[in-house]
Structure formats: C-alpha cells, structure tokens
Design brief:
about 55% helix, single chain, 11 helices, four-stranded parallel β-sheet
Length: about 230
C-alpha cells in the first residue's frame, strides 16, 4: 500500500472526513484491521482565507507548494489537496514535487462521465464557480456542460461556506437555501449536482436531492485509494 499525503486544514471540518473516508474505504477493500497509510500536513485556514479574499493566490500557491514538498520529503507517494477552491494553485503544487498530484476536478469528471450525466450543476465557493480552473477540466476533458447558480445565489453560497460551514456550523436554514438553489438548476436542466465545496456534503445528504449528487470529498478519496492500492 502506498502512502497518501494530505494537505488539510481548509477547513479541518472536511479534512477529518477525508481521513475517515480513506480509512473506511481501505477497510472495506482489504478487510480485517487494515487502515490507510496517511501523512497529513494541516495549515492554518485563517491565513489561507485572508489571502483568498485579497486575491493573493501567489502567496497561497507558495504555501501549498511548501506543504506538498514537506509531504514528499516525509515519504508520501502521492499528494491530495483536501479542498476544492485551493486547486486554483494546483500548478504550484505540481511544480514543487516529483510525485503525482491528484486533482479533485478530475475525480469529479470521471464519476460524472461514468454516471452518464452530461449537464451538471456546480455548487461551491465563488472562486470555484466563477474561475475556470475547475470548470475548464469538466468542459474540455470530460465534455460536460456546467450550470452555475445566478450571481445572487453564488454570493449566498459564498457566505454560507465561509461564515458557517468552515466554522463547523451546519444549519437547516443553510441546507434549505442550498436545496432551493439546486432545485432552480434542476429546472434549468441539470441532471446532477457537484457538491464542489468539501463541506457541502456534510450539509446536504444524498437523499435530500432527487438528482444524483457528486460528493467531491468521497470521489477524491476514492481516487487516492485507487492510487494507493494499485
């Protein structure tokens, strides 16, 4: 079994889910007392959040590159970034290491394609929804049509994610708002929805949505496990 290097802390609420998913998946696959070989480097999210809102992606890129290099030096065979938004600086991570880096949008794209969905809604931070680092992979590599919420709803999602979810606050009000947004996108033709913020699957369970949901945390974890075992 190969060792999975996790860059966590963005937020730790979702990082702990990555840890749980990876260990449960390994146990399911191998049985017995097996658990995943994991090295995690967890950052202070406050610093990342501040740079994000300042638009200082270069600073974030340097921080992520440093963390990835630490993981490689510590013995990781692959690097997984436990967040959707910060994949915006994936190029900096890839340049800093000689081991593979697994992109979360690739994990989502493969699963959506396998499901036979062609038109998919994307929920996440405004950075994830509005910048092309995520949608470009889905469009160009997997031929998917990506539907985004209207601007007002993108702002609402941003507020819910940064003021509630990353702080461990999961309310019925936030869940209801997200389900309303999904309903509007479904009415526009969405055949599935990407929960493109690693905290969103904690807020919105599969059975709350009629169309298929794509839990990026789970899909990314499965991608990492496939690498570790194969």
């Amino acid at each position: 079994m190969k060792t999975i290097g996790l860059i966590g802390g963005m937020s730790w609420e979702s990082s702990k889910v990555y840890y749980e998913y990876l260990n449960r998946l390994v146990q399911r696959e191998l049985g017995g007392s097996h658990s995943a070989k994991i090295i995690m480097s967890s950052v202070d999210f406050s610093e990342i959040e501040q740079y994000s809102f300042e638009g200082n992606w270069n600073a974030i890129g340097m921080l992520m590159a440093t963390e990835a290099a630490k993981l490689e030096k510590a013995g990781a065979d692959v690097v997984v970034l436990c967040t959707n938004t910060i994949h915006l600086v994936s190029d900096k991570i890839e340049q800093a290491i000689s081991i593979p880096f697994l992109h979360i949008a690739e994990a989502a794209g493969r699963a959506i394609q396998e499901e036979g969905v062609q038109k998919v809604a994307l929920l996440g931070t405004q950075f994830t929804m509005e910048k092309d680092f995520y949608t470009k992979i889905l469009n160009e590599k997997y031929g998917l049509e990506v539907l985004l919420p209207k601007l007002e709803d993108r702002k609402s999602l941003q507020d819910i994610i940064y003021n509630e979810l990353v702080k461990g606050k999961f309310t019925e009000m936030a869940k209801t708002k997200c389900l309303e947004i999904i309903g509007e996108l479904e009415a526009e033709g969405a055949q599935g929805v990407i929960l493109g913020c690693t905290e969103l699957p904690i807020l919105i369970p599969d059975d709350a949505v009629e169309i298929p949901t794509f839990d990026t945390t789970l899909l990314h974890s499965k991608m990492a496990l496939d690498f570790a075992l194969n």
